[in-house]
Amino acid sequence: MIKDNLGQIILEEDDLIDRLMTDPNNPITQGFTKNVDLEPIKELIDQLPNFTDYKLLNIDIETFDKTNQTQWIMPKEYYELDIAQWVLDHCKTQAEMQRCGEELLLFQERDLFNLLRYLKYLVDIMEKDNIIWGVGRGSSVSSYVLYLLKVHKVDSLYYELPIDEFLR
């Protein structure tokens, strides 16, 4: 905790965490916790993965990372979403269907369908909450599937961007 040049107390991040952990009834923290309805997020809270130090598990970091990459925190309806069908349903032309079919096979080979489901969930949340995100950057703009999911706004078919740039 520090004081500014007017003598007012300025709480740093560590100070706030200490107060939250030691005294949840503190007036400073009440503003953060009052009237919070946890019901809508209870299912998500239950799905939180147990992050453990990989060194304690006697596994290599690659195995640890692979295990954690399979744990996606999203509502059940997104886990159950047939993402391939959703993507194909949003294709308007034969060229779009062809490109998405190729890309979906590449995503499936790499076991990335849960990633696509999570990206769909993330975009839906950002749209619902009016969060603005970028137009797109890097090799991800080569993916027409990600364009349909609205992860980016660059039509890779229009600009003739090869999928090889994205999933190599």
Secondary structure blueprint with pairings:
Elements: E1 2-3, E2 9-10, H1 13-22, H2 27-33, H3 42-46, H4 61-68, H5 76-79, H6 83-89, H7 94-109, H8 113-128, H9 144-148
Antiparallel strand pairs: 1-2
Short characterization:
The protein has helices at residues 13-22, 27-33, 42-46, 61-68, 76-79, 83-89, 94-109, 113-128, 144-148; strands at 2-3, 9-10. With 168 residues, the chain is mainly α. It has three domains: 2-36, no CATH class; 42-71, no CATH class; 74-165, no CATH class.
- What is the H-and-E element order? EEHHHHHHHHH
- Helical element count? 9
Mean pLDDT: 81
Measure the end-to-end span.
49 Å
Total beta-strand segments = 2
Q: What is the number of domains? A: 3
Percent range for β-strand residues:
under 5%
Query: Structural class of the helices, strands and pairings?
Result: mainly alpha
Query: Order of strands across the widest beta sheet?
Result: 1-2
Basic shape? elongated
Helix content: 40-55%
> Biggest β-sheet: count, sense, barrel?
2 strands, antiparallel
Unreliable sequence segments? none
Radius of gyration, taken over Cα atoms and rounded to an integer in Å: 22 Å
Describe the structure.
The protein is mostly helical. The protein has 3 domains: 2-36, no CATH class; 42-71, no CATH class; 74-165, no CATH class. Helices cover 46% and strands 2% of the residues. It has 9 helices and 2 strands. It has a two-stranded antiparallel sheet with strand order 1-2. Strand 1 and strand 2 (9-10) form a beta hairpin. It is elongated and about 65 Å long. The chain starts with a strand and ends in a 20-residue tail after the last helix.
